[in-house]
Design a protein that fits this description.
The protein has 127 residues and is mainly beta. It is built from no helices and eleven strands. The strands form two sheets. Strands 2, 4, 5, 6, 9, 10 and 11 form a seven-stranded mixed sheet that branches. A four-stranded antiparallel sheet has the order 1-3-8-7, with no helix packed on it.
C-alpha cells in the first residue's frame, strides 16, 4: 500500500508562487513509475496538471494551462514529489492532489490510470 501526503497549499496573490510537496510512504518510491499532480476546482471535474516518470529519463508532462509556469520534479532520496507554481492566476485556485502509479503507461492525463492518491491541499489565488 502507498500513502501520499501533500503539503504546501495556501493563499497567494495573483502572480505569486507556491511549492507543493507530496511525501510517499509504504512502498519503495523508486517503484512509483509515474507521479503526477491533478487539481479540482469547485463544480468542475478533476483535471491533469503535470506528471513525471521515473523511467525513460524522467520525462515531464504538463497541461497547456500551466506550461511555462509550473515545474514538476521528484527527489527519490527524499521520497518526495514537488510542484513549483509560479505566476499563479485566479483560475489556478483548486484542491491539488498528488497521484502515483506503479505501471508504465504512455498516457498521463487520465485520473483513472493512477492507483494512489493523496488527500489534497487547497491552493487559493486571490487578491
Amino acid at each position: 500500500q502507498v500513502q501520499l501526503v501533500e503539503s504546501g497549499g495556501g493563499l497567494v496573490q495573483p502572480g505569486g508562487s507556491l511549492r507543493l510537496s507530496c511525501v510517499a510512504s509504504g512502498r519503495t518510491f523508486f517503484n512509483l513509475l509515474t507521479m503526477g499532480w491533478f487539481r479540482q476546482a469547485p463544480g468542475k471535474e478533476r483535471e491533469f496538471v503535470a506528471a513525471v516518470n521515473n523511467w525513460g529519463g524522467g520525462t515531464t508532462y504538463y497541461a497547456d494551462s500551466v506550461k511555462g509556469r509550473f515545474t514538476i520534479s521528484r527527489d527519490n532520496a527524499k521520497n518526495t514529489l514537488y510542484l513549483q507554481m509560479n505566476s499563479l492566476k485566479l483560475e489556478d485556485t483548486a484542491v491539488y492532489y498528488c497521484a502515483a502509479r506503479t505501471a508504465a503507461k504512455n498516457s498521463y492525463t487520465t485520473a483513472g490510470d493512477y492507483g494512489y492518491w493523496g488527500q489534497g491541499t487547497q491552493v487559493t489565488v486571490s487578491s
